[in-house]
């Protein structure tokens, strides 16, 4: 088959696309990348800034106002009282430390549990088992936060399942309290920690693990020197979930926390109960500062791309 | 039509800067209609960037691009009558082979039946009719490459841009595809602009070759021009293997001023010094013998000069085995010595 | 808004009723407004809708404080508020005076619930009493013996059941401590647990801080309380009658008592928003819920004594709640919002207001 | 990775134990849904199907599920659009303030829900003066759902590169056609995965919802919360939870299948 | 030491099945200590799988692997005294070049100072001392390849496995690296097992080559054995370019029974039929001339036979330009004709 087509005698059989307005717009966009960028960014930025950032800033501004104690109306006069109360009040220091302790414990426990299971899912299990495990990990997400928290209340109670299982070993359920809160929160956020770590481990090429073994690295060595450093950003991403969700929780501690309260409770009572939004806003500053600090700390690890 | 008078592509002062890097640096170039034109050069020399500028994926920092006399510098890629075969083929993974090939027709609003027919014809031209219903992932590398070719040619572009289309293939497959590519270009009569860093490929396929170096064209000419008359040390070294003699050595061994080069296949080994008219020789010691199948490469340390490579043909004419340490006379003909233009001359 | 403490806001009471608007929006405790959607057998809204043509939308709240915040949105026509919320609503002008003449069923309400300090100001009624109940002392009969008769079981003797004492989770619980102090430290001179001056308040807070050491958990929803007593995680503490009823039905070893010191309690009030968009439907609802049948259904479902005299004709459990027992009712200090102007009538001191109660409560819990 | 048999078995056992622990509370919920005890006491004093019958009759539960689905779908849809737009902007362009925008997207999920909740509550009510309704819930949910879509889509865009889009433009397709025929089909499974997670997040959100829901707006978690305060309703909640877990297998399985099949074809 | 008597590697009946696919099919092989051994074959022929079996990343379905006489079939990768240079290099991205190279020493518990010193020495051997502090991502392809090599050799394995280590490199760089690789192997005296699908590379570098086909070894021998005496049509075609004559054509043109092949460089073009002793020739028409720099490929349609390729050397001995359509006599010497063993013979 030899077509003989000197260019000049070739009849053009393929039409050029019609120059519709959409086409012209598209040509304009294609040669003006900045316009394209502006169009892409407008709606989401508008939303995030207008809905979220403005709301957040206004909340923080509220922290400098006060509330009339009897009518509950906000008085828009600038004052540092709330901030001073929060910074100097021993109540807030105690609760902040307690909340931080719980959040850190939950984060550590979740990472410790998520690592082996995520590793098994990503690097050891066959594809079939892997798929099964992903489903098994995701399913509890749908069982409703409250239902699960109450289920733990039942499990942890004096004659609950845990007591029944531990009694033969001479151990006892921790009962309601901070330990119970840590256990329950760890349970609730576990899937949110497993998923990013699993995804992160999956991205570690097998050949690197093989290279380590090839050079004489035993299993634990490989895990410590190669797998962990490479999965680190993903692990950090997981910790952001566990940490921030724990930091703001007030429902779980109510259900299984015994008489303890966390920062979330203080915020909640002040806004929901005491109707003191300015003080609530001042208290809210604590977790905001903590989270911003944490984000700044982990930002360079690239973790924020792994959520 | 003016197409015949006008070059298919004319680049004038084309420059592209990425931040501080000049990826393409004042390139002027004309490519004739129907030419098989190659761009050869080491990694990072700007070949891909030139191609992307022609296709319209990048906007030049300065300079203009003309297609058959028409300035297209400001036009969007989809408004340019050129098509590209990408290095990684960029086949749409969610479409069948047929849909991939028909894509260009579909976006031009051609009816389903007609585009099917024409896509099948294009697939037939690359001998892939029976794979029309497959997904790209179900094809081998060579087959994908042919689909990419069919997809780009079905819309009958005036110029086809190919960015190392054979780079991802096995050597064996690659040689096979080179032959097919040349065949298709001849059949369609389209201008091909072909990017490669494989000098043998460029020599084999092209009508003309531009050798790129640091964003500039170092030499432009036919394969023979480049190989037999390299204009610079860089070209002599990059295109094929060269034995280079600096000014001192040239004066001593060749008896001429300036840098010179000789190709390994222009050298022969002999037991005694040369005697023929126009022949010269130099004594040396064999330091390595490498069997390459169609020939044998002998590396010889000349007594008074550099280490040279001699390519002996693996046939009856060949001298008996020279082992390491053998004393030999490396012989050449004066006419095979190429003077390298000193940079800036 | 109004910021002066005792001005009764909300403008004028309505003098006559117009046509119903076709809808009404109600804010109430969970279980106060049931339309059968949770349980088809529990429904006293459909009848109202049929009768008046007012479609009901409702939202429930978890604590009195939440109700106060929500009423500020102006989204609601009617609110069922406990005594620790009513005065705040009145003071803020969020609710309007109620003309009880426009509510035929008002006549059937127990007199001992009418025109009290938590539902009226200067003799002007601000709503219709709903149900009432006391915050009783519950104990596990296996663990706690002898059977307690005094609140000392959860205060001075709390250490005996350390870690298994429970208490109601709200600032208003400070009043429980005040009731106890009223009997045990008469020299503090507490007249009304909702009118505490600085020293009285400090004594109550100290008592609660001491109690905190032994508290296993605070409760605010009754599922939590029921579970805790059933499993033995709590053995003694405040409760509501309805909780005991549930526990009894499940054969739990628990008992309740109205301690000798008396108790705090609640009497809820149906109120109308000062800017109600549907005032006529609102009045219709107040009348409907004060009717013996609806009143019986609603209070029975929530587990409290009804406010309507005739309601007990429709309930068989009235006895358990001591309904209509004026003597029993007189031992109850009904929840009232603590304000700076002492509700016990003292004028020589400033009382500690509810905002400070809230802060103190957070500090007690620690 | 090739592990020694003992390491492999140990890992498998650890994984098994963790999964077991994960399912113990769910098992408790399952048992409770059949329990005669209204207070979820353990062990159950007896078994009954009463709650299952009641749950299926409960109009409130059905309405709550419907509300939750509506909220989740609406906020997921918004998140899908906004998340896709912003990931294309961040992946395909370099611009000043890119890092800040990135942080902006993460913030709604990184800050505790109660802060988001009170901030939005304050914003809607006192600043904007809009009454709380189902739509304020949708707006709030969409805000923190953007990040899950964003992360999935941007990862896909990164892997996809620009060559497919360039190929499409090269063949004559304008930007709209390219998006419809090439980009979108490539993003589909990432959108599905991100959307599913967004849906789940919204569906189970309680704290932000508490602060942004108008009167009469009862999403499922709100309904459950309210029912926890009612006598004789707790087991119905257990039934709902069991049904949700079981029903959730379908979308999770489908998403797995879709993304799985895509992987094997690459 | 027994090392000298024992082969470095002995594979016995080695088989690996993936589901229904036999990736490696009863391979028996001995590789001597210090040998540069290559495995050559088309894609999917099982080369990588053999390597992975030797390294221990896969367990064989049956068969055994011995290392210097010791059966290591059941051993974990980290217990085998072999190291691998991976095709994608598999450098640890989070470690510096130095840490990468020192990794194998680190896991052996060698002190920081000593391992630093030895790693620097290994880096010096590949001329990368000055890059020690960089991360792999800051290196070029060729540099990475050398780091991978240093990392694998620093622990002084007895056998080094290399899976297409040059596959990702530019042609020019590749040629350069081939020379270095050979140099390093000589210097260290380690057994190299080298996987490639580039026949020229295999011929250039290896002491012996195994040609793989469908999981089996099709032919095993020195480069010269394979090139000059291919045992089958497959090998003749895969290793270098061959002109194949089937039984009929062989009978007619060559005068022998069975299939035969002749290499392009063994053919010459002449204006008249051959007359020399042992020479034969056949008339034909030139259909294509391809300039390849060091030579010119002429494709000739023989009047009585197949299309053949003739490789003319680009030097003074070369005949004047033959254009398309020229009539020529293709000439060869009887001794250059190779009889292909029919499969199963
Ligand atoms: N998008 C970009 N941003 C910044 N620098 C770029 C970009 N694209 C190319 N460059 C730089 O421009 C120069 C030329 O690159 P180009 O891709 O054109 O080279 P090439 O000749 O095609 O090389 P190769 O053979 O490796 O494909 C290089 O230095 C490269 O790093
Ligand atoms: N993990 C695996 N699972 C299933 N099949 C496999 C696996 N690894 C390899 N194979 C199959 O085994 C055969 C041999 O593969 P192998 O990778 O050894 O070939 P190769 O010679 O290295 O090819 P290439 O030159 O492409 O690298 C192929 O058919 C391949 O599809
Ligand atoms: Mg390039
Ligand atoms: Mg391979």
UniProtKB/TrEMBL annotation, chain A:
Protein name: ABC transporter permease
Domain of life per record: Bacteria
Organismal lineage: Bacteria, Bacillati, Actinomycetota, Actinomycetes, Micrococcales
PROSITE patterns named in the record: ABC_TM1
Protein family according to the UniProt entry: Belongs to the binding-protein-dependent transport system permease family. CysTW subfamily.
TM regions (residue ranges): 37-65, 100-120, 132-155, 175-201, 222-243, 277-297
Boundaries of every ABC transmembrane type-1 domain copy: 96-298
Membrane topology note: Multi-pass membrane protein
Keyword presence, Membrane: yes
Major site of localization recorded for this protein: membrane
InterPro entries named in the record: MetI-like, MetI-like_sf
Record carries keyword Cell membrane: yes
Keywords recorded for this protein, A-Z: Cell membrane, Membrane, Transmembrane, Transmembrane helix, Transport
PANTHER family registered for this protein in UniProt: INNER MEMBRANE ABC TRANSPORTER PERMEASE PROTEIN YDCU-RELATED (PTHR42929:SF1), INNER MEMBRANE ABC TRANSPORTER PERMEASE PROTEIN YDCU-RELATED-RELATED (PTHR42929)
UniProt xrefs under Gene3D superfamilies: MetI-like
Compartments, as annotated in UniProt: Cell membrane
TrEMBL record, chains B, E:
UniProt keywords, alphabetically: ATP-binding, Nucleotide-binding, Transport
Gene3D superfamilies per the UniProt record, alphabetical: 2.40.50.100, P-loop containing nucleotide triphosphate hydrolases
Alphabetical list of InterPro entries matching this protein: AAA+_ATPase, ABC_SmlMolc_Importer, ABC_transporter-like_ATP-bd, ABC_transporter-like_CS, Mo/tungstate-bd_C_term_dom, P-loop_NTPase, Transp-assoc_OB_typ2
Keyword Translocase: no
GO molecular function, one term: ATP binding
Entry-linked Pfam families: ABC_tran, TOBE_2
SUPFAM superfamilies assigned: MOP-like (SSF50331), P-loop containing nucleoside triphosphate hydrolases (SSF52540)
Sequence ranges assigned to domain ABC transporter in this UniProt record: 9-239
Identification of the protein by name: ABC transporter ATP-binding protein
Native source species: Microbacterium fluvii
UniProtKB/TrEMBL annotation, chain D:
TM regions (residue ranges): 12-34, 64-89, 101-120, 132-154, 190-214, 234-255
Keywords, comma-separated and alphabetical: Cell membrane, Membrane, Transmembrane, Transmembrane helix, Transport
Keyword Transmembrane attached: yes
Source organism phylogeny: Bacteria, Bacillati, Actinomycetota, Actinomycetes, Micrococcales
Gene3D superfamilies, alphabetized: MetI-like
InterPro entries, alphabetized: Bact_Polyamine_Transport, MetI-like, MetI-like_sf
Family indicated by similarity: Belongs to the binding-protein-dependent transport system permease family. CysTW subfamily.
Location (main, coarse): membrane
Species: Microbacterium fluvii
PROSITE patterns named among the record's database cross-references: ABC_TM1 (PS50928)
Subcellular location, record wording: Cell membrane
Family annotation (CDD domains): TM_PBP2
Ranges of residues in domain ABC transmembrane type-1: 65-255
Protein name: ABC transporter permease
Topology in membrane: Multi-pass membrane protein
Pfam families reported in the protein's UniProt record: BPD_transp_1 (PF00528)
């Amino acid at each position: 088959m030899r077509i003989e087509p000197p260019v000049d005698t070739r009849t053009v059989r393929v039409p050029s696309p019609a120059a519709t307005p959409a086409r012209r717009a598209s040509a304009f966009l294609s040669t003006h990348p900045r316009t394209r960028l502006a169009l892409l960014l407008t709606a989401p930025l508008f939303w995030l800034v207008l809905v979220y950032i403005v709301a957040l800033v206004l909340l923080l501004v509220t922290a400098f106002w006060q509330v009339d104690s009897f009518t509950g109306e906000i008085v828009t006069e600038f004052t540092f009282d709330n901030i001073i109360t929060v910074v100097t009040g021993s109540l807030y220091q105690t609760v902040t430390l307690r909340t931080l302790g719980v959040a850190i414990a939950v984060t550590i426990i979740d990472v410790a549990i998520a690592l082996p299971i995520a590793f098994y899912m990503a690097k050891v299990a066959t594809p079939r088992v892997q798929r099964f495990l992903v489903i098994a990990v995701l399913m509890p997400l749908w069982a409703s936060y409250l239902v699960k928290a109450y289920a733990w209340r039942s499990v942890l109670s004096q004659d609950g399942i845990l007591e029944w299982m531990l009694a033969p070993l001479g151990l006892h359920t921790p009962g309601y309290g901070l330990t119970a809160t840590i256990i329950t929160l760890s349970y609730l956020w576990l899937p949110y920690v497993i998923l990013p770590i699993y995804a992160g481990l999956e991205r570690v090429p097998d050949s690197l693990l093989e290279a380590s073994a090839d050079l004489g690295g035993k299993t634990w060595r490989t895990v410590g020197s190669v797998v962990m450093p490479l999965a680190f950003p993903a692990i950090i991403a997981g910790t952001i979930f566990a940490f921030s969700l724990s930091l703001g929780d007030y429902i779980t501690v109510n259900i299984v926390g015994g008489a303890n309260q966390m920062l979330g409770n203080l915020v909640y009572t002040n806004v929901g109960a005491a109707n003191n939004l300015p003080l609530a806003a001042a208290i809210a500053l604590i977790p905001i500062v903590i989270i911003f600090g944490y984000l700044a700390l982990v930002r360079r690890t690239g973790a924020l791309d792994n959520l | 039509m003016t197409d015949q008078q006008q070059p298919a592509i004319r680049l004038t002062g084309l420059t592209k800067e990425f931040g501080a890097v000049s990826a393409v640096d004042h390139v002027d170039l004309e490519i004739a209609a129907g030419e098989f034109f190659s761009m050869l050069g080491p990694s990072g020399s700007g070949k891909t960037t030139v191609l992307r500028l022609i296709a319209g994926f990048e906007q030049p920092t300065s300079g203009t691009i003309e297609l058959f006399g028409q300035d297209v510098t400001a036009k969007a890629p989809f408004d340019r009558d050129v098509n590209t075969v990408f290095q990684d083929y960029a086949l749409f993974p969610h479409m069948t082979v047929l849909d991939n090939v028909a894509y260009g027709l579909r976006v031009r609003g051609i009816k389903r039946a007609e585009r099917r027919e024409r896509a099948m014809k294009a697939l037939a031209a690359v001998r892939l009719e029976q794979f029309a219903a497959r997904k790209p992932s179900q094809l081998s590398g060579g087959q994908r490459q042919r689909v990419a070719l069919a997809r780009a040619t079905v819309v009958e572009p005036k110029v086809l841009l190919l960015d190392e289309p054979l780079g991802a293939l096995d050597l064996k497959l690659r040689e096979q595809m080179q032959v097919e590519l040349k065949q298709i270009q001849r059949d369609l009569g389209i201008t091909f602009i072909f990017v490669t860093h494989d000098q043998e490929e460029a020599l084999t396929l092209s009508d003309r070759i531009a050798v790129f170096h640091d964003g500039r064209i170092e030499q432009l000419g036919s394969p023979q021009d480049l190989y037999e008359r390299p204009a610079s040390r860089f070209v002599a070294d990059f295109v094929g293997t060269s034995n280079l003699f600096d000014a001192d050595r040239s004066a001593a061994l060749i008896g001429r001023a300036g840098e010179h080069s000789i190709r390994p296949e222009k050298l022969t080994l002999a037991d005694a010094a040369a005697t023929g008219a126009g022949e010269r020789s130099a004594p040396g010691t064999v330091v390595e013998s490498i069997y390459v199948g169609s020939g044998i490469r002998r590396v010889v340390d000349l007594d008074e000069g550099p280490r040279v490579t001699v390519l002996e043909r693996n046939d009856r004419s060949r001298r008996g085995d020279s082992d390491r340490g053998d004393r030999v006379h490396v012989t050449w003909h004066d006419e095979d010595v190429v003077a390298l233009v000193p940079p800036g001359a | 808004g109004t910021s002066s403490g005792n001005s009764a806001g909300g403008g004028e009471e309505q003098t006559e009723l117009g046509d119903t608007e076709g809808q009404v929006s109600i804010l109430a405790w969970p279980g106060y407004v049931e339309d059968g959607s949770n349980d088809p057998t529990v429904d006293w809204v459909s009848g109202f809708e049929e009768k008046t043509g007012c479609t009901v939308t409702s939202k429930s709240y978890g604590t009195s404080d939440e109700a106060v915040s929500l009423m500020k949105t102006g989204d609601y026509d009617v609110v069922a508020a406990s005594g620790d919320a009513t005065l705040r609503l009145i003071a803020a002008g969020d609710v309007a005076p109620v003309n009880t003449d426009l509510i035929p069923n008002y006549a059937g309400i127990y007199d001992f619930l009418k025109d009290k300090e938590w539902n009226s100001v200067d003799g002007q009624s601000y709503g219709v009493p709903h149900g009432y109940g006391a915050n009783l002392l519950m104990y596990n009969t296996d663990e706690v013996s002898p059977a307690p008769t005094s609140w000392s079981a959860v205060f001075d003797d709390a250490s005996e059941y350390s870690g298994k004492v429970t208490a109601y989770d709200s600032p208003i619980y400070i009043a429980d401590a005040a009731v106890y102090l009223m009997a045990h430290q008469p020299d503090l001179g507490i007249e009304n647990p909702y009118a505490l001056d600085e020293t009285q308040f400090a004594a109550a807070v100290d008592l609660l801080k001491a109690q905190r050491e032994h508290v296993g958990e605070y409760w605010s929803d009754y599922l939590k309380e029921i579970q805790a007593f059933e499993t033995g995680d709590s053995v003694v503490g405040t409760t509501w009658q309805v909780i005991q009823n549930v526990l009894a039905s499940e054969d739990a070893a628990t008992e309740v008592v109205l301690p000798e010191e008396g108790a705090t309690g609640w009497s809820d009030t149906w109120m109308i928003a000062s800017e109600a968009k549907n005032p006529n439907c609102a009045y219709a609802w107040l009348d409907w819920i004060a009717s013996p049948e609806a009143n019986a259904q609603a209070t029975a479902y929530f587990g409290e004594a009804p406010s309507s005299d005739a309601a007990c004709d429709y309930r068989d459990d009235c006895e358990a709640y001591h309904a209509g027992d004026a003597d029993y009712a007189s031992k109850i200090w009904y929840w009232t919002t603590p304000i700076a102007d002492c509700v016990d009538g003292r004028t020589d001191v400033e009382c500690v207001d509810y905002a400070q109660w809230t802060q103190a409560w957070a500090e007690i819990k620690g | 990775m090739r592990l020694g048999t003992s390491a492999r078995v140990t890992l498998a056992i650890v994984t098994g134990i963790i999964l077991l622990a994960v399912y113990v509370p769910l098992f408790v919920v399952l048992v409770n849904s059949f329990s005669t005890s209204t207070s979820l006491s353990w062990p159950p004093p007896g078994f009954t199907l009463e709650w299952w019958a009641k749950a299926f009759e409960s109009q409130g539960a059905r309405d709550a599920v419907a509300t939750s689905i509506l909220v989740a779908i609406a906020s997921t849809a918004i998140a899908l659009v906004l998340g896709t737009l912003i990931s294309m902007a961040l992946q395909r362009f370099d611009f000043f303030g890119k890092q800040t925008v990135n942080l902006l997207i993460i913030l709604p999920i990184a800050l505790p829900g109660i802060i988001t909740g009170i901030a939005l509550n304050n914003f809607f009510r006192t600043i904007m003066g809009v009454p709380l309704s189902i739509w304020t819930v949708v707006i709030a949910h969409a805000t923190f759902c953007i990040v899950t879509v964003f992360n999935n889509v941007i990862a896909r865009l990164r892997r996809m590169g620009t060559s497919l889009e360039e190929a499409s433009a090269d063949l004559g397709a304008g930007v709209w056609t390219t998006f419809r025929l090439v980009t979108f089909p490539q993003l589909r499974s990432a959108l599905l995965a991100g959307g599913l997670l967004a849906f789940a997040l919204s569906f189970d959100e309680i704290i932000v919802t508490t602060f942004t829901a108008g009167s009469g707006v009862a999403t499922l978690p709100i309904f459950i919360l309210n029912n926890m305060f009612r006598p004789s309703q707790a087991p119905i909640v257990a039934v709902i939870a069991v049904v949700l877990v079981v029903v959730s297998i379908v979308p999770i399985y489908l998403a797995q299948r879709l993304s799985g099949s895509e992987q094997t074809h690459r």
